[in-house]
Amino acid sequence: MALTQHDRTDIHDLINLHGHLVDAGELDRADELFTPDITYDVTDLGFGSLRGIAAIREAARVLGAANPVGHHVTNIVITPLDDRSARVRSKGIGVNADGTVGSVVYDDVVTRQPGGWRISHRKVTARRAAPGGRDADPRGVLDRWRRAAVNQSVDGMRRVYAADAVHEFPFTRPGLPSRLEGRDEIVGWIAAGWRANALEYQRYRTLAVHDTADPRTIVVEQEVLGTSATTGEFVLPNVVVLTAIDGRIAHLRDYVDIPAAAAALGRDI
């Protein structure tokens, strides 16, 4: 059975309601938006895939002042799947407290519930480049590097590093190289680490991003949140100095918090 005009109006209102509730801080009303088992995929933004309303509330709480102050939704397109579900695609514009603006695409599946239509799956994809362009700026490259790390994607890492890239660890310990040269050596070392230890990155938390005199280089203060098969949940703080040329990492200086990494692995330094 096709969706009625009333269904379409309700779905439009549902998609629009998200911005109103989030911007008002009314996350206690999230059950008006989502099914209890919602999957909220924000991997493209470096936060992994959140499952359940409680996880969404917690992620928003942790992000704190870094949350956009304004969420605006446009270009809503509804495609019926059956009489109880539909696919909805829309564009989102996020306005930050400092006046900067970001653009995303929301890909949703909405389902008819006893209390009305709810979002059961949402994937958020950032728009960072014009059609036919590449995520060539250092912030776009940082996002791609983070996604590859969260997904443990060897192909993603190979795409984000330049062939002659250099990855340095100014803080080191026995077993941790101070310098890796070339894409093959860098990605090979990263992949070996994924196979050898039980750390699973779930998302990145950005504390600050600083521009430098060189527009190709940024300094990033960040934390990685994840789980360890040995010690449970962990937070790894670090600072990276990233230089991107032609949409790839040319040089990365990675200031790892050695004690925090050892603690997450359950090892002594």
Name the descriptors.
269 residues, Nuclear Transport Factor 2, Chain: A, 2 domains, six-stranded mixed beta sheet, elongated
Structure explained in plain terms:
With 269 residues, the protein is an alpha+beta fold. The chain folds into 2 domains: 5-127, Nuclear Transport Factor 2, Chain: A (Roll); 138-265, Roll (Nuclear Transport Factor 2, Chain: A), CATH 3.10.450. The chain has helices at residues 5-23, 53-63, 138-151, 154-160, 183-196, 258-265; strands at 34-41, 49-51, 70-82, 85-95, 101-113, 116-127, 161-168, 179-181, 199-211, 217-228, 232-245, 248-256. The strands form 2 sheets. A 6-stranded mixed beta sheet has the order 2-1-6-5-4-3, covered by helices on one side. A 6-stranded mixed beta sheet has the order 8-7-12-11-10-9. A hairpin with a 3-residue loop joins strand 10 and strand 11 (232-245). Helix 3 (138-151) packs antiparallel against helix 4. It is elongated. The model has no long low-confidence stretch (mean pLDDT 90).
From the alpha carbons, calculate the radius of gyration and give it in angstroms.
20 Å
Task: Tally the helices.
Answer: 6
N-end to C-end Cα span: 63 Å
CATH class (first level) name of the largest domain? Alpha Beta
Q: Report the structural category.
A: alpha+beta
H/E topology pattern: HEEHEEEEHHEEHEEEEH
CATH architecture of the largest domain: Roll
Approximately what portion of the residues adopt beta-strand conformation? Answer: 35-45%
Major beta sheet, specifics?
Answer: 6 strands, mixed
Count of distinct strands: 12
CATH topology of the largest domain: Nuclear Transport Factor 2, Chain: A
User: Approximately how much helix is present in the residues?
Assistant: 25-40%
Number of domains: 2
Q: Which consecutive residue ranges, at least 5 long each, have pLDDT under 50?
A: none
Overall 3D shape: elongated
Sheet with most strands: strand arrangement? 2-1-6-5-4-3
Report the mean per-residue pLDDT as an integer.
Answer: 90
Pfam families: SnoaL_2 (PF12680), SnoaL_4 (PF13577)
Protein name: SnoaL-like domain-containing protein
Domain SnoaL-like: 6-123, 143-251
InterPro entries: NTF2-like_dom_sf (IPR032710), SnoaL-like (IPR037401)
